[in-house]
Amino acid sequence: MTTAEPTAIKQPRRTALRQTTLMESVYQEILARLQSGQIGPDDRVLDYEIAKEFECTRMPVRQALLRLVNEGYLVGTTRGFVTPVLTGEDVREIFDVRRLLEPSAAAGAAAVLTDEQMAAMSAAYRKCRRGFERKDIALMTEANVEFRGIWLEGVLNSRLKGTILRFADHARQVRHGTMTKPGTLELIVDGMQALLKGFMERDPVQVRAATLAFIDDAEQQYFLTVDDAT
């Protein structure tokens, strides 16, 4: 009787693993630039320039950029990738979605965040305050991203967390042009202070109200800026 040869188990290809890791690195870097405002409405993102920067082929760069297109951060054109041009109705819909999701999610996170996470949010608020005193928009934006990222760690539903993250980022891109409007920076730092107070007291009602007020103020400032420009 002939003994059957054992079936060989194929090992995963390491080249595919490296390619995926590289694509993720490019994605995270371009996303961070979009979040911080380093890539603005007048900028074009070109795959060959990013590939040269990362010293890689264009394939993982294209994959990363197409992922950002699918998530609404970028739009593909015949001359590279750009941030989307949003109508007033688009902007209203973005803020409507944020109002539906963020206040409840933040209120729920207030009960589960650790003392270490609370301390990190306090540090992010202090960074925002320093940015406000220096009129440093980039530093305030960085602090805002950090602050939101920390409380989002308390949102256990990963799909909800991802949706909140994307729509908040889209709103930040829209809102970037309002940052030089008088009173906007003060609204941001005061809004973050109110949020921090609610989180530190673990008061879901206060957190919900502060989150809603923060969103409403951001929307109002955007449309006031648009009205002033017309």
From TrEMBL:
Single annotated GO MF: DNA-binding transcription factor activity
UniProt keyword list: DNA-binding, Transcription, Transcription regulation
Signal peptide positions on this chain: none
Domain HTH gntR-type positions: 20-94
SMART domains registered for this protein in UniProt: FCD, HTH_GNTR
Residue runs in coiled coils: none
Name of the featured protein: DNA-binding transcriptional regulator, GntR family
Gene source species: Paraburkholderia caballeronis
